[in-house]
Amino acid sequence: MAAGPLAAQEIIAHRGASGERPEHTLAAYELAIDQGADWIEPDLVVTKDAVLIARHDTDLSQTTDVGSREEFADRRRGKTIAGELVNGWFAEDFTLAEIRTLRAKERLAGMRPANARFDGLYSVPTFAEVLKLVRAKEAETGRRIGVMPELKHPTYLLQDGFDTVQLVLNDLAGAGYSKDDAHVAIQSFDIAPLKRLDAMSDFMLVQLVGPQGGPQDEPGTDFSAMIQPAGLAEVASYADVLAPEMTLLFTTEGAPTGLVEEAHDAGLKVFAWTLRKENAFLPPILKRGTSENGTGDVLGMVSILKAHGVDGIFTDDPGLAVSARKELAR
């Protein structure tokens, strides 16, 4: 556990510049880097032949064209993941060669119809390819770019024989990252994978928490308990950063709940998720106009998070967030 140096309000490109390109594509990551994001954030799942790929979830239905591919029709099945029955096509049932034949598509096409124009243009990248892009952009720009992968359903995948903790460390080592590189952070909603990583590396570790439920690997633990003082002290024993959903940080009127201060008192940084520009995802005081997919007050949201002392912001719209950060720094 070793928190790296952080700038004021780190901008973390959530799945790349996913407000402008289909998420988890090299195009989305590159655009985010070009827009000035400090970090890119790939979600990682695994193929049948144990290769990490960047996808929102193990189910490929919403982010690829797999559902329209007749040759894979018989792969559709139901699985229980995080206590819920999911019917779809799952990455761990496909080899990398088969994944290579799929094309990415916009997951929120109703909210972001402009992104759907790019459907079919991009392939599904491996984590190794994402890291290669980052290294290439670092050479091009002369600046370090952080990589903040999230291990998706690591406990569920481990039960199926896929050790994504070891796989992510292998890919990072293969791309030349030392085990204490300050520009690598690894996230999980689960606890055990972060504790393993704490023993195996000195990367920054990020404990994700949501407004409901709890870690999949500790069904007796609720996120609500983890954000109490005793829970925060426990998180700080193995992680460097608490990453709560934004509504846990402030009321609908924008008043602080006190969580940021309490997390800081426990020795944790706080990264908030997820800032999106559309009205549908913003609190009432920051909505602009009546359209759910209209653009709200991103500057106002960044301003509130800054006032509350948030150290980093996950965002689908890194270009807007970077601009807001500059504006607030004047």
Automatic annotation (TrEMBL):
Its EC number is 3.1.4.46. PROSITE patterns: GP_PDE (PS51704), NIRD (PS51300). Keywords: Glycerol metabolism, Hydrolase, Signal. It catalyses: a sn-glycero-3-phosphodiester + H2O = an alcohol + sn-glycerol 3-phosphate + H(+). PANTHER family: GLYCEROPHOSPHODIESTER PHOSPHODIESTERASE GDPD5-RELATED, GLYCEROPHOSPHORYL DIESTER PHOSPHODIESTERASE. GO terms for molecular function: glycerophosphodiester phosphodiesterase activity. It is an enzyme of class 3 (hydrolase). It holds the Pfam family GDPD. Residues 9-325 form the GP-PDE domain. Belongs to the glycerophosphoryl diester phosphodiesterase family. The keyword Nucleotidyltransferase does not apply. GO terms for cellular component: periplasmic space. This is glycerophosphodiester phosphodiesterase. It comes from the Bacteria. InterPro entries: GP_PDE_dom, PLC-like_Pdiesterase_TIM-brl. GO terms for biological process: glycerol metabolic process; lipid metabolic process.
